[in-house]
Amino acid sequence: MARRSRLAWIIGVTGGLIGGLFGLPPIPQSLAYHAFADTRPMLGVPNFLNVASNAAFLLVGGAGFVTVCRAGRTRDIIFAGSSERWPYALLFLSVTLTGLGSAYYHLAPDNARLVWDRLPMAVAFAALFSAVVTERFDGAVGAALLAPLVAASVASVLYWHITEAAGHGDLRPYIVVQFYPVLAIPLIMYLFPSRYSRGGDLLAAAALYAVAKGFEALDAMIFALGRIVSGHTLKHLAAAAAVALIIRMLQIRRLVPAGENVFSAAAR
């Protein structure tokens, strides 16, 4: 497929998602979102497991940031160009801040605290999308997109927060920020081959994030199965595991020699 045709697919998906979503009326934040199934306190901490499970984000975010910082100092971590490093650095830094913001939110869930959960999460999605574009489409384009994508992601959360405070909340821009990368990244991976092996690891991470969203949707149902752990706690752990897969990908992937089949290299 010609490069122009592949770009047309990306533009079509982008326009279809944004056009379809903004064809809907504004979507306010339901207050029921803050009613999590597991509210048990422990060690003086309310909603203990939903708070404590954010330690997983701190661990994988910190580990990922150290991994990226080691690139160039060890042969074990490979980036073809420096422009490929910064989106991943921002991704892992944002994951770390998500752990802090989410823990703060879950101590006393409400819209005001939810902002601090969503801000770093939105930046993380923007950084990952920029990383994929940089590696698979064009390094200069991906690098140039990073700042505008981050600005748009932050703006989507602030827009929701401002409209919510004004009594007519609108989540539509934030929904685009969160779900567009989930749709676009697999499409970009399919249309544009990578210079690296282990591309399947990123798809596995996306699948694990989808599982995390499933846990979130089944929060109360899972908690009802013995009242041991809730779906939302499992969501935190599954999402952190998805980030761990990305770290592992960076640690073991290799540049694919020109002419070599990237799918055979993925098995290495």
Structure commentary:
With 268 residues, the protein is mainly α. It has one domain: Rhodopsin 7-helix transmembrane proteins (Rhopdopsin 7-helix transmembrane proteins). It has helices spanning 3-22, 48-52, 55-70, 85-107, 111-136, 139-165, 172-191, 199-217, 219-224, 231-252, 262-265. α3 runs parallel beside α10, α4 runs antiparallel to α5 and α5 (111-136) runs antiparallel to α6. Mean pLDDT is 90; it is low at 261-268.
Which oligomerization state do the chains in this entry correspond to? single chain
Task: Report the average pLDDT across residues.
Answer: 90
First CA to last CA: what distance? Answer: 27 Å
CATH architecture annotation = Up-down Bundle
Number of E-state strands: 0
Report helical residue fraction: over 70%
* CATH first level: Mainly Alpha
Largest sheet geometry: none
* Main structural class: mainly alpha
Detail the poorly predicted runs.
261-268
The count of helical stretches stands at 11
What keyword list fits this structure?
268 residues, 70% helix, mainly alpha, single chain, 11 helices, Rhopdopsin 7-helix transmembrane proteins
Summarize the structure.
With 268 residues, this protein is an all-alpha fold. 70% of the residues lie in helices and 0% in strands. It has helices at residues 3-22, 48-52, 55-70, 85-107, 111-136, 139-165, 172-191, 199-217, 219-224, 231-252, 262-265.
